[in-house]
Design a protein that fits this description.
Oligomer: single chain
Strand content: 25-35%
Number of helices: 9
Strand order of the largest sheet: 2-11-15-13-12-16
Largest sheet: 6 strands, antiparallel, barrel
Shape: elongated
Number of strands: 20
């Protein structure tokens, strides 16, 4: 039997209505309880962290000026030696023979000088009596001068031979620890002064009473690291002990590791007990900022200006109203900064030019991010950064609230940021200037008073952002009903502030 098409059209209309009703009458999202925290005084210590390796401050390579066979080597790697202690003895037979020869030559030169001196005295007496000729007298004087020269040469030869003999005995140049021994007993070595390669390295030693950590600090943190700052080092070998150190210097040459730019920072460490050994790996925590007894709030309470709309909706506030209040605050700050005393300086409590510039950036963003118009059957979508989505027939336009300032007012540490303060009527926005932060708490430079309660918005913002995303997905996937116009269009993109 042939079916009439009419019932099928009714079924289709009914299904579309069910979808539309489900989209328009969704279950309300669970509200998140907004926790608060007081503005209170506390100490804030900001630090930079890095990993590094322990290394000696100064490594001494011990070489010998003498060449020959190693006949004695009473030290090994790890031996702690004192300055002047025997390290290596080289075969002295050759240098000892040379020394004995020079000593004999010195004795002969001394005897020759004595003979020449006696001859010169006799020649002087005979020449005074006119017994010998002037030529004979001059010959005796010349022989005496040559004997003196031979004696000086013999003395220098003895001194050089003595030095070569002493060089065959290698002693410790400093107090320290043997950290490397490239040679062994019975090996023939070359002299450091005569060998073309600079001679054979016998030992490497270093004073491990004072070592340093070479830490690789990310380029985003190295600007806050300065010589003289206090640092704490924890090595893997002693995880429960903190070694105190001081930043010695920041090396200027960057090192790129896996496409990350790092700068070597040297931290001097006291190692009198000898626990730190070269090559140990560890973590360094450098104190870059230390604020005592300053006003502070949890970092969770600080919101960027681009999050204004999401934060406002999470608190149940109208983004446009929040934006208007912020504009009034910035106007008051500009007026306050314009007030100057007789010397031309800003009056006490006035904000910095950066804060004024921040307010101007927000105003620009507001001018460029206007409100969207209402669609047929729908409410007006507030103008927002990046523009609002085109809503379904009767649904409200999804231009997210009021944040022409979302791009125009950009907060940063030391400049304006946004917090919400709890008062008798609920929550109200406040622009604050912030200082040092350790990621848990942030210093408040201006904008808040001690004892005020600020909203902690991390969880609420996450839920609100998820709700906004679900709304956008639902508005795209749902089927529009007939008769509705487009929702409110989003405003222009906010200008980026300073």
């Amino acid at each position: 039997m042939h079916r009439s098409p009419r019932p099928r059209r009714i079924v289709h209309l009914g299904l579309a209505g069910v979808i539309a009703i489900a989209g328009c009458h969704k279950a309300p999202a669970k509200s998140v309880a907004i926790p608060t925290a007081p503005v209170e005084r506390r100490d804030i210590v900001a630090s930079a962290e890095a990993t590094g390796t322990v290394e000696p401050v100064n490594i001494v390579e011990v070489k010998s000026k003498a060449s020959g066979l190693i006949t004695a080597m009473p030290v090994d790697v790890g031996s702690v030696v004192k300055k002047g202690q025997l390290l290596v003895q080289i075969d002295t037979r050759d240098v000892k023979n040379q020394y004995d020869q020079t000593v004999a030559a010195l004795q002969a030169a001394q005897a020759s000088l004595n003979v020449a001196s006696a001859q010169k005295k006799r020649s002087d007496a005979l020449f005074a009596q006119e017994v010998i000729t002037p030529q004979e007298h001059e010959t005796a004087a010349l022989a005496f001068a040559n004997a003196q020269s031979q004696l000086v040469k013999a003395r220098t030869d003895v001194d050089l031979a003595r030095q070569r003999l002493e060089d065959a005995t290698v002693r410790a140049p400093i107090d320290g620890t043997i950290i490397a021994k490239p040679v062994s007993l019975g090996q023939v070595i070359t002299s450091a002064t005569s060998g073309p390669t600079g001679g054979t390295t016998i030992l490497q030693m270093a004073d491990l009473g004072k070592v340093r950590m070479r830490a690789m600090v990310n380029e985003t943190d190295v600007g806050n690291v300065q010589p003289g700052q206090v640092a704490q080092v924890v090595v893997d070998a002693f995880p429960d002990r903190k070694f105190q150190g001081v930043v010695e210097k920041v090396e200027p040459q960057a090192v790129v590791q896996q496409s990350v730019t790092m700068f070597p920072v040297l931290i001097s460490l006291d190692n009198k007990d000898g626990k730190l050994l070269p090559g140990m790996n560890g973590e360094v925590t450098m104190t870059v900022q230390d604020r005592k007894n300053v006003l502070a709030i949890p970092s969770d309470a600080v919101r960027a200006m681009k999050d204004l709309a999401v934060s406002a909706r999470a608190l149940g506030l109208d983004p446009d109203s929040v934006q208007a209040k912020l504009q009034a605050q910035m106007a008051a700050r500009r007026a306050q900064y314009a007030q100057r005393d007789s010397t031309g300086a800003p009056v006490a409590g006035a904000d910095t030019p950066q804060s004024v510039a921040l307010g101007q950036g927000g105003a620009t963003g507001r001018r460029r991010g206007g409100a969207g118009a209402s669609g047929a059957g729908g409410s007006a979508g507030a103008g927002g950064a990046g523009g609002g989505a085109r809503g379904p027939g009767g649904a409200a336009g999804a231009g997210a609230g009021g944040a022409g300032a979302g791009g125009g007012m950009r907060g940063s540490r030391g400049s304006g940021q946004l917090v919400f303060v709890k008062d008798s009527t609920g929550f109200s926005p406040r622009i604050v200037r912030l200082g040092a932060t350790n990621y848990d708490y942030t210093e408040v430079l201006s904008g808040l008073k001690e004892g005020e309660q600020v909203a902690l918005l991390a969880a609420a913002n996450l839920q609100q952002a998820r709700t906004d995303q679900q709304s956008r997905i639902r508005s795209v996937t749902s089927t529009p009903l007939t008769g509705g116009g487009p929702g409110g269009g989003g405003g222009g993109r906010g200008a980026r502030g300073p």
